[in-house]
Amino acid sequence: MVNGVPQPAFYIFKCQQSAPPGMPKPSCVSQNNPESQTLFQYIAQVLMQKGIIGTVQPIQTSCLGRCQQGPVMLVEPGHTMYVGLTKEKIDRIIDEHIIGGNVVAEYVIGDEVWGEPIAPSAMAR
Ligand code: FES
Q1: Helix, strand, or coil here: 99?
Q2: 64 in contact with ligand 1, CB cutoff 6 A
Q3: Is 19 in the pocket of ligand 1 (CB under 6 A)?
Q4: What is the pLDDT of residues 63-115, one digit of tens each?
Q5: Residue 1 in 3-state DSSP?
Q6: Nearest CA to ligand 1 atom 1
Q7: CB burial class (10 A; 0-12, 13-18, 19+) of residue 103?
Q8: Residue 22 is part of a domain; what is its CATH number?
Q9: Range of the domain at 65
Q10: Residue 36 Cα to ligand 1 middle (Å)
């Protein structure tokens, strides 16, 4: 048995992309949605309060390609994309998915914009 530093159980990739003011394109961090500017910090704070920040690693990313559904975050492993985030939704996701092990299905992105992935081996030329 190896007693090394344990790897994280989960990564939470939170999209932190913000469109410049006046840009019509939606973005996950927006001046029109003040709460959206606080969500990454909120995630880190809740993980810290619950004592699980060591095994759950929150990561700030740029655009994850689902801007219309923002604010979004991707939970790995599992490839679970959560959309339309608020603090309340984050509370439930951390309690029920990250700690409880059950995906919060009602906050997951719709299949119509999150179809099955295409294997790179099927596309590579
Ligand atoms: S801006 Fe967040 S997914 Fe594109």
Answers
A1: helix
A2: yes
A3: no
A4: 999 999 999 999 999 999 999 999 999 999 999 999 999 999 999 999 999 99
A5: coil
A6: 27
A7: middle
A8: 3.40.30.10
A9: 10-123
A10: 12
